[in-house]
Amino acid sequence: MHIAESVKQKNGKMKVRHILGISGGKDSAALAIYLKQKYPQLKIEYYNSDTGCELAETELLIERLSAYLGTIKRLRAAEGSPEPTPFEHFLKAAGGFLPSPQQRWCTKKMKLSEFEKYAGNDYAVSYVGIRGDEERDGYISSKPNIQAVFPFRRNIWSLDVINRILNNDNIHMLERLYDELCPTYMKEDIMEIVRRPITKQYYYSKKLNALLDVDVKLFNHVVFNYLKTTEYPVGKLTEEEFPLLDNDEVLVKEDIFRILRESGVGVPSYYEEIPFEVDGKKGTYCRSRSGCYFCFFQQRIEWIWLLEQHPDLYEKAKSFEKDGYTWIQGETLADLAKPERVRQIKLDIIKRQEQAKVNKQGTTLVDILGDEIMCSNCFI
Question: Which of 95, 40, 99 is nearest to 69 (CA)?
Answer without folding.
Answer: 40
